[in-house]
Amino acid sequence: MRISYNSPVVLSFTFLALAVFVLTHFLSTSLQGAFVTLPSFSFTRPLDYFRLFSHVLGHQDLNHLMGNFTFILLIGPILEEKYGSQVLIGLILFTAFITAVLNTLFFNTGLLGASGIVFLFILLASFTTFKSGEIPLTFILVFLIFIGQEAYSSFESDNISQFAHILGGIIGSIFGFSFNKR
Q1: Which of these, 116, 124, 130, lies nearest to 142 by C-alpha position?
Q2: Does the residue 1 lie in any domain?
Q3: SS3 166
Q4: Alpha carbon 154 to chain centroid, angstroms
């Protein structure tokens, strides 16, 4: 038996995030800022454009990284097989960009981590058995549980961006419904 690189987007995303974690926590902590979307975007700072996408690779600590990539590695290969590598990378980049832009416009906090991508994957996975003309009950329950919990948690004072979670879930829901409807 041989080991196969069965899910190139998911595995590459995982290894990139792991490399960024090692780089920013052990080799050069001064680079951590390159992987956080700042609340003050400047059109004259090239690094700010990079941060619109790179924030999904940075993580606060090992628990944050492990929590996100446990879900990504569990759900991602199924999604990559169903939707294809190009679609999945497009969804990851789109979600990273939209969450960063909206966070910058509406919140006075930075954005760090792949949690929005996790919620994108969770809600999108509930559409894997979608049939035209139906709304899967699993989608409704997952939406209520995960998005409901995030909406409830948004009233707590913490360093977690429930907004990115909710937005990732909404993007996954919209894409899952519209893609599978065709």
Answers
A1: 124
A2: no
A3: helix
A4: 18
Can you give the residue range of the structural domain that contains 86? Answer: 8-181
Query: How many domains does the chain fold into?
Result: 1
- Report the CATH number that the domain containing residue 69 is assigned in CATH: 1.20.1540.10
| Within-domain flag for 151 | yes
CA distance 36 to 53: 9
Give per-residue pLDDT as tens, 51-70: 999 999 999 999 999 999 99
Contacts of 82 (CB under 8 A, 6+ apart): 128
- Record the pTM: 0.88
Confidence label for 167 from pLDDT (cuts 50, 70 and 90): confident
Rounded CA-CA distance 13/57 in Å is 8
For residue 125 the two structure tokens come to 């996975």
Cα–Cα distances in angstroms (integers) from residue 120 to residues 64, 158, 165, in the given order: 17, 22, 8
Report if residue 3 sits inside a domain.
no
Give DSSP secondary structure letters for 66-88.
HHHHHHHHHHHHHHHHHH-HHHH
- 2 domain-assigned: no
